[in-house]
Amino acid sequence: MAKKTIGVGVVSLGWMGRLHARSYRSVSERFPELGVEARLVAAADPIEEVQRAAVEDLGFERAYADYHELLADPEIDVVSICSPNFLHAEIALAAIEAGKPFWIEKPMGVSAEQARTVAQAAEKAGRSPPSASTTATPPPSSTCASSCAPASSAASPTCACGSSPTTTPPPWGP
Hints:
Layout: E1 4-11, H1 15-30, E2 36-44, H2 48-56, E3 62-64, H3 67-72, E4 78-81, H4 88-98, E5 102-104, H5 112-124
Parallel strand pairs: 1-2, 1-4, 2-3, 4-5
């Protein structure tokens, strides 16, 4: 059976962004029954040295200084937002506008109003409101790439796809 390849973009490559990149690389090995392989298409980080490391050390195909370029990249199917907290809502709203499903690290925003704005925009775009929590299982290894398809409603989603990193990964069919 041919594996479905999902193009991944990661915004900000601090500790959490690097963890997301490594987790995406392990999807195929950790969950072979899903028939999915994550392709590290691009990372976005304003620091030139981090951009270089994204390509040379983490295996991304390219790196951008501006996350808007990453969101405009047609080869990216899903996005992990791992930026500093004060940027989460801004980048999430831009991802929604770009039509990119995304995983967002907690918190969604620095205020209840920002989180509400992101949740409402996600719902309006036909996606479950995203949120994240720290778990023993790295979230990207079991969730975000499945959000390529619009999510069904879920009572307590932890990803734009409505799945949880503590449950069995959702099917990633065509």
